[in-house]
Amino acid sequence: MAGGRRRKFLVSKLYSFACVRPKFEEDHFQIGGPGFSRVVYANDVDCEHPINLSYGSNYVSTTKYTLATFIPKSLFEQFRRVANIYFLVSGCLSLTPLAPYTALSVILPLIVVIGATMVKEAVEDWRRWQQDTEVNNRKVKVHQGDGDFDYTEWKNLRVGNIVKVDKDEFFPADLILLSSSYEDAICYVETVNLDGETNLKLKQSLEVTSSFQSDFSFKDFKAIIRCEDPNASLYSFVGSMEHDGQQYPLSPQQLLLRDSKLRNTDYIYGAVIFTGHDTKVMQNATSPPSKRSKIERKMDKIIYLLLSALVLISAVGSIFFGIATRDDLEHGKMKRWYLRPDQTKIYFDPNRATVAAILHFLTAMMLYGYFIPISLYVSIEIVKVLQAIFINQDIQMYHEESDRPARARTSNLNEELGQVDTILSDKTGTLTCNSMEFIKCSIAGTAYGHGVTEVERAMARRKGSPLINELDNEDHEENHVDAKSAIKGFNFKDRRIMNGNWINEPHADVIQKFFRLLAICHTCIPEVDEDSGKISYEAESPDEAAFVIAARELGFEFYQRTQTSISLHELDPMSGKTVERPYRLLNILEFSSSRKRMSVIVQDEEGKLQLLSKGADSVMFERLAKNGREFEEKTKEHVNEYADAGLRTLVLAYRELDEEEYMTFNKKFMAAKNLVSADRDEKIEEAADMVERDLILLGATAVEDKLQVGVPECIDKLAQAGIKIWVLTGDKMETAINIGFACSLLRQGMNQIIITLETPEIIGLVKAGNKDAIAKASKDSVIRQISEGRKLISSSSAQSFALIIDGQSLTYALEDDVKDMFLQLAIGCASVICCRSSPKQKALVTRLVKSGTRKVTLAIGDGANDVGMLQEADIGVGISGAEGMQAVMASDVAIAQFRFLERLLLVHGHWCYRRISSMICYFFYKNITFGLTLFLFEAYASFSGQAGYNDWFMSFYNVFFTSLPVIALGVFDQDVSARFCLKFPMLYQEGVQNVLFSWARLLSWMFNGILNAITIFFFCTSAFQHQAFRKGGEVVGLEVLGATMYTCVVWVVNCQMALSVSYFTLIQHIFIWGGIALWYLFLLVYGAMTPTISTTAYMVFVEALAPAPSYWILTLFVVIATLIPYFTWAAIQMRFFPMYHNMVQWIRLEGRADDPEYCQVVRQRSVRPMTVGVSARLDKLHS
User: Where do the annotations place ATP binding (predicted)?
Assistant: First the structure.
């Protein structure tokens, strides 16, 4: 019977399956106008109309550069940095006689630094090019003419081609669906690459092309498609197809987008309309917002500060030089004859002292350039890439079940991970698993299901209730059903209705209708495993799958779906046997966020028409008939209990329809469905509203979205670290509050400030329907509640508060004149939960926190609805979970589970922040130390422009002799181990308060550099100035003094590094001591070269320095004398004024890490008292 009817009731009768024969309305009249000018000649690529050829190819490139643009664009990127511009100008000036050194010695290091960064850019772009090549060379079947299809590469596709795509293949371009392997030309599409949604979408071709189901049928096929121009809208499409002289309107239902995948359909035929960068996925491929860390922005300010200092000392030196030059003549003779003024026309001419001073200023600007660390940027980039590799390789953040490691998708923000002040988190799929389990239900006013949720366990612990022991005993008694719990999506235990026992219940007929509704009212697609025969389900959401699985386990197995029917294996209560029952599927009224319900209309074997509906309690109870409320009070009571237990609830109801009522509805419904106008959705909802009334209540379902493993412990640790946590969720307030208790975000005794518009006054205005009055009263109510909350917080400083606000109130709280008040209230609370919040509200809240607090914010989520929040935050963390990869693709860091956030922030974040901070401070220290010795020698030589060192000594200082130890520090150093980072989360506050990169710390390092430079210069000059250096009594020359000072500088800055390192590895030893050894090796090799190359370094080490005991003694003395002040200060600071990490280092040193009392004393020195988390709860109980 059912088989015969499938031919009559085509898919055009189904709501979820698109409109067939839509009318030409509003939007279609725009075709041919601006924005709607595209014309495609389908299957007529080589006709006399060359318009197809004018469209772009299907070749896609996501690379940043091409061979032609790489050098200019990459150089432009490099010279956006002010330091690099300075070195470029210096390099150009070094080609003039003004230069105090050879041009090559300046230009070569710049080329090395710029070249290294360009190589890194080239490697990254090469990887992108490889990915593009793999995609562009994929194969697809294309019509070659005469009904023959053959494989060709994606990049060769042209607009107008007819392609054949097989099951589980990606669509190579944007296509118009012409036909498929199904009789009604439908197909199922997975769009996870586009919008992150894993549920399947259903598409259907026009009826006129649905019969083209073989290759040969396209031999003579011709069509002209007119449609909108390329745009980024994934969910809209306007076009028309001309075939055999007839016009047919096209809608999004016929559009198959590139990078989506064909599922559950053997093949489809489609016409290419958009190719390459014209496709909608590429139109949406905008670059994520550029994010720079606060440290990097501060580093720019330091560079400007040093440049200002450079200009200042150059100006001071030039003034002194000008004065000395003006006064140089005495009785017609030059005082400074050794400067050979007779060989120059301007530089030392006493009569042109002003010009000489100006020229000296340019010389000084080049000479003192070593104050600016040329290799700083490239070193930091190398370090950050290596840090990201270590994050990616951390086995402690690898999720074995899903085979997903942590992945730092950008290395720009590593140090920001150690400075997070506020975390804004999604709930479903982020704190929870987004893996729903059917655990309880209420049928005919009777509650079924003995499962215990994690929220119930947390509530029982909170109240000291014996509930847990009782429930655990019940679980023990029901061991015979334990095997069932292994079924994904089903964790239901109740002997009364399992194993067919429901037929003995008082309301067995209601139970039968309840589970039959669960088995029919959905959009799931069954998939049968050919080997085992087991049925699995492709569902739009985990909830849907859980309902269908629950129905199957309780005797109502959904096993087959066609375009017009659903078939079940049901337990017949009369015979006690399983029977097959087909139901004709007439209409599907789909779920939407505004409707909050879903319904299907079916016809059973007896011809009865039924509407089966499930939805949120807020919309379902008001739609019940007077005679359908028999179990209403009990069901409401159970729904509230389920919400308190943290469960997601849906209410189930049905009604019977007569033929006349259905025909009236269907006529109006199909007319609305076939509209292509702006009010289409509104008309559809009006039609659905006609029949979704006078329902008879069956009961309610309760599914549990379990907390992810380790979430409460992770939140506890993050709270101990002083990080504030906000949860932004779409759940109802009761569910969100109870999840908050379960995950330790809330605790007993915490004062709850609840802002809601569910007040009698507002509800009364809503019923009256005056929108202006509702808006004004709602805003006033929100402002009043916020003000009361702020007064409450200010009057009670000893207590902790939690703020809970619903989405409707949040709308008004985020308005310009209210948001600052709201933020001040939220900052004063230990926890903030925003319920019923939309994706846009999540992004706006994130922006408010980021801009209002001016501190680092981190957003974490797993779904496409979290993308705005992730991109708005300083750091976006994506959970690679069950909702696709959209959040991951928009994130800066991807992890598999929320609990890994603990290690990501407290360990890697703390390490990265400390390493980058120390590295930058050290970089400026070592450059100031080196640069200031140049300035002091310049002053010593009456600002003559003479460099104290050999040209190549200066050039290689940053590149070879001192850079590698800094990189090792940035990659390997640890103030404390990972175990201690987690044991003492308060360490994290060093980053939040930015104590390691404050101006005070930066200036103290710079001051240390100044002291070191003065010590080195004056000790070296004083030791050599009046002492014989050779056997003949000669004093040292420039080459010996320069080499000796340089040796002292190399030793001092490398030994300073050794004193600064907290955690030595073999690599650090090699780099630190190897840098010093490399200096001596270089001096040997360079000094052995011909004097035309080595100049002042010729044989200086072999013949002058090495044989002289004074050289070695002076080096040792200067190194010790220079480092003693720092060593003394560090020892005093560590002993008497320890920072957090110093305190933990003392604990480790004294072996008291396992002494709980001592550790508690240290922990209590944290920045703020604990108000959130397990520890806070325990502390409160103890007190």
Answer: 426-428, 544, 591, 614, 648, 729-731, 836, 842, 865-866
- Closest by alpha carbon to 180, among 189, 190, 191, 193? 189
Candidate ranges 77-81, 364-368, 378-382, 546-550; pick with highest mean pLDDT: 546-550
Question: 635, 603, 624: which is closest to 694 by C-alpha?
Answer: 624
Distance CA 602, CA 612 (A): 8
Retrieve residue 192's tokens. Answer: 């996870």
Whether residue 544 is annotated as binding a ligand: the answer is yes
Residue 556 in contact with residue 570, Cβ under 8 Å? yes
The identity of residue 454, as a single letter, is E
658 in active site: no
- Least Cα distance to 934 among 1086, 1045, 1078 occurs for 1045
Model confidence band, residue 8 (pLDDT cutoffs 50, 70, 90): very low
- Judge whether 730 is annotated as a binding position: yes
How does DSSP assign 742-771, residue by residue? HTTSS-TTPEEEEE-S-SHHHHHHHHHT-H
Give the gyration radius of the chain's Cα atoms: 38
User: 3-state SS of 379-394?
Assistant: HHHHHHHHHHHHHHCC
3-class DSSP string for 415-481: HHHHCEEEEEECCCCCCEEEEEEEEEEEECCEEECCCCCHHHHHHHHHHCCCHHHHHHHHHHHCHHH
The verdict on whether residue 428 carries a ligand-binding annotation is: yes
The per-residue pLDDT for range 987-1017, each reduced to its tens digit, is: 888 888 888 899 999 999 999 999 999 999 9
- Please report, as a single letter, which amino acid is at residue 935: F
Phi (first) and psi of residue 3, to 5 degrees: -65, -40
Cβ-based neighbours of 308, under 8 Å, separated by 6 or more: none
β pairing state of 724-728 and 801-805: unpaired
Per-residue pLDDT for 10 more than 50? no
* CA dist., res. 386 & res. 972, Å (int): 10
The CA-based dihedral angle spanning residues 192, 194, 196, 201, taken in that order and rounded to the nearest 10 degrees: -50
Q: With contact defined as beta carbons under 8 Å apart, do 208 and 250 qualify?
A: no
Catalytic one among 195, 278, 426, 973?
A: 426
Three-class SS of 54-110: HCCCCCCCCCCCCCCCHHHHHHHHHCCCHHHHHHHHHHHHCCCCCCCCCHHHHHHHH
- Six-digit token string for 694: 């006078």
Does residue 842 have a known ligand-binding role?
A: yes
Structural domains in the chain, CATH included, are 157-284 (2.70.150.10), 295-372 (no CATH), 407-431+709-895 (3.40.50.1000), 433-467+487-705 (3.40.1110.10), 906-1133 (no CATH)
Q: Which amino acid is present at 707? A: L
114-122 own/partner pairs: CB under 8 Å, 24+ apart: 114/75, 114/78, 114/84, 116/378, 116/382, 117/78, 117/377, 117/378, 117/381, 118/70, 118/74, 118/75, 118/78, 120/381, 120/385, 121/64, 121/65, 121/74, 121/77, 122/65, 122/70, 122/74
Distance between CA atoms of residues 882 and 982, nearest Å: 29
pLDDT in tens, 398-452: 988 888 899 888 777 889 999 999 999 988 778 877 678 899 999 999 999 988 8
> Are the beta carbons of 272 and 157 closer than 8 angstroms?
yes
Contact by Cβ (8 Å): 186, 563: yes
Cα–Cα distance, 619 to 596 (Å, whole number)? 7
What is the residue whose two structure tokens read 């029919």? 520
Residue 370 amino acid letter: Y
Q: How many CA atoms lie within 13 A of 620 on its CB side?
A: 30
For tokens 């150093």, the residue is 973
Rounded distance between C-alpha atoms, residue 374 and residue 367, angstroms: 14
d(CA 130, CA 153): 16
Query: Is position 729 annotated in a ligand binding site?
Result: yes
